[in-house]
Amino acid sequence: MNNKGVDKSKRQFLTSALTVVGAVGSGYLAVPFLAQMQPSVKTMAAGAPVEVDISKMEVGQLIRVAWRGKPVWVLNRTPEVIETLKTLDAELRDPLSNDSEQPASSKNQARSLKPEIFVAVGLCTHLGCSPTFRPEVAPIDLGEKWKGGFFCPCHGSWFDLAGRVYRGVPAPTNLEIPPYRYASETRIIIGEAAEEKNA
User: Fold this and answer.
1) Are residues 11 and 83 in the same domain?
2) What is the arithmetic mean of pLDDT over 167-178?
3) Is 32 inside a domain boundary?
4) Are residues 31 and 49 in the same domain?
5) Which residue has the higher pLDDT, 14 or 186?
C-alpha cells in the first residue's frame, strides 16, 4: 500500500481530537457514578453535631435528644444531687472514670464540664438497653441504698446521676459521655469536643 499522498498531520490531529473527546466523555460518565458512592444527606446529618438549648430547663429536669442514632440525656442536676455524688464512691466500680475510655471532661466526680449539667449517652454499657431515669431516693422497688440515678430494667444495672456504674451489676463500665461543648451559657453542642485546657 502506498502512503505517499496521505497527510499524516491530519491523521494525528484526528487521533488526538478523538482521544480528548473520549476522555471528556469518560469524565461525564464517571462523575455521576462516583457521586452516587457518597453518603446521602440523611446519613451525613445523622452524624452531625446536635445543638441543645438548655435555657428553659428546670432544675431536676432530664431532656432527651438523638445524636448518631443514639439517645443522649441532658440532666439539670439539683444542688442536693451534686452533694450526694460525693458520698457514693465506695459503692461504685469506677468513680472517676479511670478504667474506661472517656473524655477528660468526665474524669471527675460530676463527670461533666459543669457540675449542674450532665450529658451522657442513654445506653447501658452491658447490652445496650436504655436505662430508666429514677431520680427518687430509696424507692420501695430499689431499696434504701438507691440515691437516685438510672436503672436498667433489662438486667438490673444501676448508675448514679453522674452515669457511674455501681459494683456488682452486669454493666462493666460507666455510661458513655459523648463529646460536647458549650456554645454559650444556654447552648450545648453534642458531637463536638470542648477544647482541653493545658495544665
Assistant:
1) no
2) 94
3) yes
4) no
5) 186
If asked whether residues 13 and 109 sit together in one domain, one would say no
Contacts of residues 45-52 at CB distance under 8 Å and 24 or more positions apart, as own/partner, are: 47/191, 48/191, 49/189, 49/190, 49/191, 49/192, 50/189, 50/190, 50/191, 51/183, 51/187, 51/188, 51/189, 51/190, 52/187, 52/188, 52/189, 52/190
CATH code: domain of residue 79: 2.102.10.10
Question: Taking a C-beta distance cutoff of 8 angstroms, is the pair 124, 154 a contact?
Answer: yes
71-99: b or e for each residue (b if 16 or more CB lie within 10 Å)? ebbbbbbbeebbebbeebeebbbbbebee
DSSP letter (8 states) at residue 165: B
CA 22 – CA 18 distance, rounded (Å)? 6
Residue 116's pLDDT band (boundaries 50, 70, 90)?
very high
| Of 22-31, 32-41, 94-103, 123-132, minimum mean pLDDT range | 32-41
Q: Are residues 27 and 61 in the same domain?
A: no
Number of domains observed in the structure of the chain = 2
Helix, strand or coil, per DSSP, at residue 128: coil
Asked whether residue 57 carries a pLDDT value surpassing 90, the answer given is yes
Q: Is residue 147 part of a domain?
A: yes
Query: 169: domain range?
Result: 44-190
117-152, pLDDT tens digit by residue? Answer: 999 999 999 999 999 999 999 999 999 999 999 999
